[in-house]
Design a protein that fits this description.
The structure is a single chain. The protein has 162 residues and is of the alpha+beta class. Helices cover 38% and strands 22% of the residues. The protein has a 4-stranded antiparallel sheet with strand order 2-3-1-4. The chain is extended, with a radius of gyration of 29 Å. The model has no long low-confidence stretch (mean pLDDT 78).
Length: 162
């Protein structure tokens, strides 16, 4: 017969008690679904966001700074990065190839001594950039997403910041 020490027996007993008791912390409780929007409005049209004056001032400063430079933080796809004798020619070829496949997406050829960089798009979010990245052909298999200052998009909706 197997004998168990007193301490081992107590530990086994506590283990069994701890894991056989029912707890309410992990049980699922039904949650009432949000009320359906029946008046045709969107949720962001019905939101009332209140912020302190410091937050509003910071948003105003960021907006003004972006207006001065004509850019704001966003994402682009980096298609090429290189230096050397043939770097410019290769960068221009990558730019032309991408323009042929995606004529609606802006492509930028950037020179930061001694490197040539080809970046594409003006994406506000990483998910927008990821959609385009996944649709690229095998010719751009080394492309990746980078954060960059992007150009302001064309006027869609005027938003007033108070």
């Amino acid at each position: 017969m197997i004998t168990i020490g007193r301490k081992a027996g107590i530990l086994i007993f506590l283990f069994l008690v701890a894991f056989t008791c029912r707890t309410e912390a992990q049980s699922a409780r039904p949650i009432a679904p949000p009320p359906a929007i029946t008046d045709g409005s969107f949720i962001w049209q019905r939101l009332n966001v209140e912020a302190s004056s410091e937050i509003t001032d910071l948003l105003r400063q960021q907006y003004d700074q972006g207006r001065k430079t004509g850019t704001f933080p966003g994402y682009r796809l980096q298609l090429y990065f290189g230096s050397g004798v043939q770097a410019r020619a290769h960068a221009e070829k990558v730019r032309a190839d991408f323009n042929a496949l995606h004529p609606d997406t802006r492509v930028y050829l950037i020179f930061k001594s001694p490197d040539f960089i080809v970046r594409a798009g003006d994406f506000r979010s990483k998910s927008e950039a990821l959609k385009v990245l996944k649709s690229l052909s095998a010719g751009f298999s080394n492309a990746f997403i980078v954060s960059d200052e992007i150009a302001f998009p064309g006027p869609v909706v005027q938003v007033e910041i108070k």
